[in-house]
Design goal:
- The complex is a heterodimer.
- Chain A is built from 6 helices and 12 strands.
- In chain A, helix 4 runs parallel beside helix 5.
- The longest helix of chain A has 15 residues.
- By secondary structure, chain B is of the alpha/beta class.
- Chain B folds into 3 domains: 107 residues, P-loop containing nucleotide triphosphate hydrolases (Rossmann fold), CATH 3.40.50; 50 residues, no CATH class; 65 residues, Arc Repressor Mutant, subunit A (Orthogonal Bundle).
- Helix content of chain B is 51%, strand content 10%.
- Chain B is elongated, with a radius of gyration of 26 Å.
- The chains are: A alpha+beta, B alpha/beta.
- At the A-B interface, helix 4 and helix 5 of A face helix 1 and strand 5 of B.
């Protein structure tokens, strides 16, 4: 088999690490599907600037170890390369996630109206907080399977990070085009974001450990918390 | 359904939160001092729940197998439970000791702290009105009573008790008072409690009521038709301010 017969394009496309090829003025010439999702959380300008900053001094490629975080995307390093003046490519390497002994997705889960569960948690939060809450959600969402107790503990603690804020914006939406794979099953993702002018990060460790015990991924940001919930309808 | 009367903003928020868990399978802990209305609140929101003493773990586990909605009483006095014991059930646990909530709260998704009556002045007003009407109806009187010195040291229990006592004592006629005195004197009369010791049961309320009514020892002495020095001496002996 000759090298010409191998479809390298396909390999790049199927790679779970984002790969982007930029023109010298920062326009995207090509990107794989993971990079498309990544661009939902950061701008091409920012990625191009990183590429320029860590590019090798002369033709070739250079790998740099660094921590990068874009919402739930965590990277431990990048490779930047160019062979001519026509393009420059950037590849980011996902940080490995520690596997956990999570139970089956159906274990401890019950069919739930997620909106009612969120409302109950907001009502509990409002007993101790005077924050003005704005909730943006889709009331037409079908019921999903979720461990109501664990989710509530995680949501309670997350909301408590905003106890002293004046306004708290909560939004629940179904993410289009992104999936989570649990036990070889592919599920859509419901994203719950809690956002305000500031956040008390004192209990971040507790939040991380609560999320480790569920299939919910938590992203702790400066002024916001995102919970990514697998949309398990049946 | 048992009524839960409140206008306390905090309790209204708790009611709202609890009502939202009615269709969820989550575990809730309701903590607060004794007699703050925890049980009435739960009966009002979960009228069909199965009630059981949390101290009997074996029976609780059986109840959790048979029922989907279970109220656990005396949770502060129970042995430890596991998170998995409450899976897929609507469990409402009652804890009379707010001080130990921290130890127990990790088991629960929803923890509510019921304020005591001293922090709910709105509820004291509502409950006082209810208990006055209730006691007047039972005793069969329409007498007006003063709302001073109501006892809320033991929350609703002591408030109710103090109102009933006030209404009852205000509604007594002369013969009933005589009959009560008769029973009392019959029980306490002995060598140590003679005439001098027991006469204060009559004299003290008489002088206190007279002083409150006439505000002057001189006036009271003339009303009682006794010497004012005798009255002053009695006031001193009885330790009346």
């Amino acid at each position: 088999m000759s090298l010409e017969s191998i479809d390298f394009n396909f390999l790049i496309e199927a790679d779970i690490n984002p790969a982007i090829i930029f023109s010298p003025d920062g326009h995207i010439i090509h990107l794989n599907s993971t990079a498309e999702v990544l661009l939902g959380y950061t701008s091409s300008k920012e990625l191009f600037e990183i590429a320029m900053q860590y590019a090798p001094q002369t033709y070739g490629h250079k790998t740099t170890t660094m921590d990068l975080k874009y919402n739930l995307f965590l990277f431990y390093g990048i490779t930047v390369g160019y062979e001519n003046d026509e393009y420059i490519y950037l590849r980011l390497y996902h940080k490995p996630r520690i596997g956990s002994n999570k139970e089956s997705v159906n274990c401890n889960t019950t069919q739930t109206d997620i909106n009612t569960l969120i409302e109950a948690n907001i009502a509990l939060f409002q007993i101790e907080s005077n924050a003005e809450i704005t909730l943006l959600t889709d009331q037409g969402l079908p019921e999903i399977k979720i461990d109501q107790n664990r989710f509530s503990k995680l949501l309670n603690k997350s909301l408590n990070n905003f106890k002293d804020c004046k306004n708290v914006d909560i939004s629940l939406k179904l993410i289009i085009g992104e999936y989570i794979i649990i036990k070889k099953e592919k599920y859509q993702i419901l994203s719950l974001e809690i956002k305000s002018e500031s956040r008390d990060s004192t209990f971040d460790n507790q939040l991380e450990s609560l999320s480790e015990n569920s299939f919910i991924t938590i992203s702790l940001n400066e002024n916001s918390i995102s919970l990514e919930i697998p949309f398990i309808a049946q | 359904m048992e009524n839960f009367n409140t206008s306390s903003p905090e309790i209204i928020k708790i009611q709202k939160g609890l009502r939202l868990t009615k269709t969820l399978l989550v575990s809730s802990l309701i903590a607060g001092e004794k007699h703050t209305g925890k049980k009435t609140l739960i009966k009002n929101i979960f009228p069909d729940a199965f009630w059981i003493d949390a101290r009997d773990i074996k029976e609780v586990k059986r109840a959790l197998e048979l029922h989907q909605e279970v109220v656990l009483t005396n949770f502060d006095k129970s042995l430890p439970y596991n998170e998995s014991d409450f899976f897929s059930k609507r469990v409402i646990a009652i804890c009379d000791d707010p001080a130990i909530v921290k130890k127990k709260e990790s088991l629960f998704s929803f923890v509510y702290l019921l304020p005591s009556l001293k922090d709910r002045p709105e509820d004291v007003k509502i409950l006082t009105k209810i208990f006055i009407n209730e006691s007047k109806e039972i005793i069969g009187t329409d007498i007006n009573i003063s709302m001073e010195n109501l006892d809320i040291s033991e929350n609703i229990k002591s408030l109710k008790k103090s109102i009933y006592k006030k209404v009852f004592s205000s509604s007594l006629d002369k013969n009933e008072i005589k009959s009560i005195l008769y029973n009392y004197l019959y029980n306490v009369l002995d060598e140590e409690n003679g005439y001098r010791e027991l006469i204060e049961v009559f004299e003290e309320p008489l002088i206190k009521a007279g002083l409150k009514k006439y505000r002057s020892q001189l006036k009271l002495a003339s009303i009682l038709k006794i010497n004012r020095n005798t009255l002053r001496k009695k006031i001193y002996e009885l330790g009346i301010d």
